[in-house]
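ok trying again, last paste got cut off:
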Amino acid sequence: MTTPATPATRMSRRFGGLRALALGLGLLAAACSPVMRYHGYAPSDADLAQIEVGRDTRETVAQKIGQPGIGGVMEGSGWYYVQSDWRQQSWHAAEEVDRQVVAISFDARDRVQNIERFGLADGEVVPLSRRVTSSGPRPSVLSQVFAVLGQFTAATAR
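nice, full thing came through this time. structure:
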Protein backbone atom coordinates (compact mmCIF):
# COMPACT_ATOMS: atom_id res chain seq x y z
CA MET A 1 0.00 0.00 0.00
CA THR A 2 1.09 3.47 -0.71
CA THR A 3 0.93 6.14 1.85
CA PRO A 4 -0.72 9.39 0.97
CA ALA A 5 1.60 12.28 0.16
CA THR A 6 2.01 14.73 2.97
CA PRO A 7 2.52 18.44 2.45
CA ALA A 8 6.21 17.99 3.41
CA THR A 9 6.85 15.34 0.76
CA ARG A 10 5.05 17.39 -1.90
CA MET A 11 7.21 20.41 -1.00
CA SER A 12 10.35 18.24 -1.15
CA ARG A 13 9.46 17.00 -4.64
CA ARG A 14 8.78 20.55 -5.86
CA PHE A 15 12.13 21.86 -4.57
CA GLY A 16 13.90 18.79 -5.99
CA GLY A 17 12.58 19.70 -9.43
CA LEU A 18 13.68 23.31 -8.99
CA ARG A 19 17.17 22.17 -7.95
CA ALA A 20 17.46 20.00 -11.06
CA LEU A 21 16.28 22.89 -13.23
CA ALA A 22 18.82 25.28 -11.62
CA LEU A 23 21.60 22.73 -12.08
CA GLY A 24 20.66 22.25 -15.75
CA LEU A 25 20.62 26.02 -16.39
CA GLY A 26 23.98 26.37 -14.64
CA LEU A 27 25.53 23.67 -16.83
CA LEU A 28 24.05 25.26 -19.95
CA ALA A 29 25.50 28.67 -19.03
CA ALA A 30 28.93 27.12 -18.35
CA ALA A 31 28.90 25.37 -21.74
CA CYS A 32 28.29 28.68 -23.50
CA SER A 33 31.16 30.55 -21.85
CA PRO A 34 34.23 31.10 -24.06
CA VAL A 35 37.37 29.00 -23.70
CA MET A 36 40.66 30.87 -24.14
CA ARG A 37 43.78 29.14 -25.51
CA TYR A 38 47.25 30.67 -25.54
CA HIS A 39 49.97 29.47 -27.93
CA GLY A 40 53.61 30.47 -28.15
CA TYR A 41 55.67 33.06 -26.31
CA ALA A 42 56.46 36.70 -26.99
CA PRO A 43 58.67 38.54 -24.47
CA SER A 44 57.17 41.55 -22.71
CA ASP A 45 58.37 45.11 -23.24
CA ALA A 46 60.12 44.91 -19.85
CA ASP A 47 62.03 41.81 -21.01
CA LEU A 48 62.96 43.50 -24.29
CA ALA A 49 64.22 46.57 -22.42
CA GLN A 50 67.05 44.38 -21.07
CA ILE A 51 68.41 43.94 -24.61
CA GLU A 52 70.80 46.63 -25.83
CA VAL A 53 70.70 47.26 -29.57
CA GLY A 54 74.21 47.16 -31.05
CA ARG A 55 75.70 45.50 -27.97
CA ASP A 56 73.89 42.22 -27.22
CA THR A 57 74.58 39.09 -29.30
CA ARG A 58 72.49 36.02 -30.08
CA GLU A 59 73.99 34.30 -27.06
CA THR A 60 73.19 37.11 -24.61
CA VAL A 61 69.67 37.49 -26.05
CA ALA A 62 69.11 33.76 -25.51
CA GLN A 63 70.30 34.13 -21.91
CA LYS A 64 68.06 37.14 -21.23
CA ILE A 65 64.77 36.14 -22.88
CA GLY A 66 65.29 32.60 -24.20
CA GLN A 67 65.57 31.23 -27.72
CA PRO A 68 62.63 31.70 -30.07
CA GLY A 69 60.37 29.01 -31.42
CA ILE A 70 60.94 30.29 -34.97
CA GLY A 71 64.12 31.41 -36.71
CA GLY A 72 64.59 33.10 -40.06
CA VAL A 73 64.69 31.03 -43.23
CA MET A 74 68.29 31.95 -44.03
CA GLU A 75 71.28 31.24 -41.83
CA GLY A 76 72.20 34.26 -39.78
CA SER A 77 68.80 35.94 -40.14
CA GLY A 78 66.53 37.17 -37.37
CA TRP A 79 64.71 35.52 -34.51
CA TYR A 80 60.92 35.58 -34.24
CA TYR A 81 58.88 35.10 -31.08
CA VAL A 82 55.19 34.46 -31.82
CA GLN A 83 52.27 34.37 -29.38
CA SER A 84 48.62 33.87 -30.38
CA ASP A 85 45.51 34.08 -28.19
CA TRP A 86 42.45 32.16 -29.39
CA ARG A 87 38.84 32.20 -28.16
CA GLN A 88 36.42 29.36 -28.79
CA GLN A 89 32.80 29.77 -27.83
CA SER A 90 30.55 26.71 -27.73
CA TRP A 91 30.46 24.92 -31.11
CA HIS A 92 31.81 27.87 -33.15
CA ALA A 93 35.24 27.70 -34.74
CA ALA A 94 38.12 29.14 -32.72
CA GLU A 95 38.85 32.82 -33.41
CA GLU A 96 42.25 34.48 -33.08
CA VAL A 97 41.76 37.52 -30.85
CA ASP A 98 45.39 38.64 -30.44
CA ARG A 99 48.77 37.94 -32.02
CA GLN A 100 52.13 39.33 -30.95
CA VAL A 101 55.24 38.84 -33.09
CA VAL A 102 58.60 40.06 -31.79
CA ALA A 103 61.27 40.18 -34.49
CA ILE A 104 64.92 40.59 -33.48
CA SER A 105 67.36 41.05 -36.35
CA PHE A 106 71.13 40.72 -36.14
CA ASP A 107 73.96 42.31 -38.11
CA ALA A 108 76.94 40.52 -39.73
CA ARG A 109 78.74 40.38 -36.35
CA ASP A 110 75.68 38.70 -34.74
CA ARG A 111 74.85 41.79 -32.68
CA VAL A 112 71.26 42.96 -32.24
CA GLN A 113 70.45 45.38 -35.05
CA ASN A 114 66.72 45.89 -34.61
CA ILE A 115 63.84 44.91 -32.31
CA GLU A 116 60.26 45.15 -33.58
CA ARG A 117 56.90 44.12 -32.15
CA PHE A 118 53.95 43.47 -34.45
CA GLY A 119 50.32 42.91 -33.51
CA LEU A 120 47.07 41.81 -35.08
CA ALA A 121 44.57 44.57 -35.85
CA ASP A 122 41.57 43.99 -38.08
CA GLY A 123 43.17 40.85 -39.53
CA GLU A 124 46.36 42.65 -40.61
CA VAL A 125 49.76 42.56 -38.96
CA VAL A 126 50.70 46.06 -37.82
CA PRO A 127 53.89 47.35 -36.17
CA LEU A 128 53.40 48.19 -32.49
CA SER A 129 56.94 49.26 -31.56
CA ARG A 130 60.47 49.14 -32.95
CA ARG A 131 64.04 50.08 -32.12
CA VAL A 132 66.45 50.57 -35.01
CA THR A 133 70.13 51.51 -34.96
CA SER A 134 70.57 52.55 -38.59
CA SER A 135 68.23 54.82 -40.50
CA GLY A 136 69.00 53.32 -43.91
CA PRO A 137 66.57 51.11 -45.82
CA ARG A 138 66.53 47.47 -44.81
CA PRO A 139 66.25 44.93 -47.67
CA SER A 140 63.28 42.59 -47.49
CA VAL A 141 63.64 38.82 -47.42
CA LEU A 142 62.46 38.55 -51.04
CA SER A 143 64.96 41.14 -52.27
CA GLN A 144 67.74 39.22 -50.48
CA VAL A 145 66.65 35.94 -52.10
CA PHE A 146 66.51 37.52 -55.58
CA ALA A 147 69.91 39.12 -55.02
CA VAL A 148 71.42 35.72 -54.20
CA LEU A 149 69.72 34.09 -57.18
CA GLY A 150 71.03 36.88 -59.44
CA GLN A 151 74.63 36.03 -58.52
CA PHE A 152 74.56 32.63 -60.24
CA THR A 153 75.95 32.39 -63.77
CA ALA A 154 76.68 29.51 -66.11
CA ALA A 155 80.36 29.73 -65.17
CA THR A 156 79.69 29.39 -61.42
CA ALA A 157 77.23 26.50 -61.87
CA ARG A 158 79.97 24.07 -62.97
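cool. The mean pLDDT is 76. The helical segments are 7-32, 45-49, 58-65, 141-149.
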